[in-house]
Amino acid sequence: MPIILAIETSSELASVALLRGGSVISRVSSGVRTHSQSVLPMIQELLAEAGIALKDCDAIAFGSGPGSFTGVRTACGIAQGLAFGGNLPVVPVVTLDAMALACHQRHGAAEVLAVLDARMGEVYWAQYRFADGAAPVPVLPPALSAPEAVRPQGAPVACGNGLSAYAEAFAGGGGFAEVMPHAEQVAQLAAIALAAGRTVTAAEAQPLYLRNKIAYTQAERRDMAAAKAAEGGA
Question: Which pLDDT does position 132 carry in this prediction?
Answer without folding.
Answer: 76
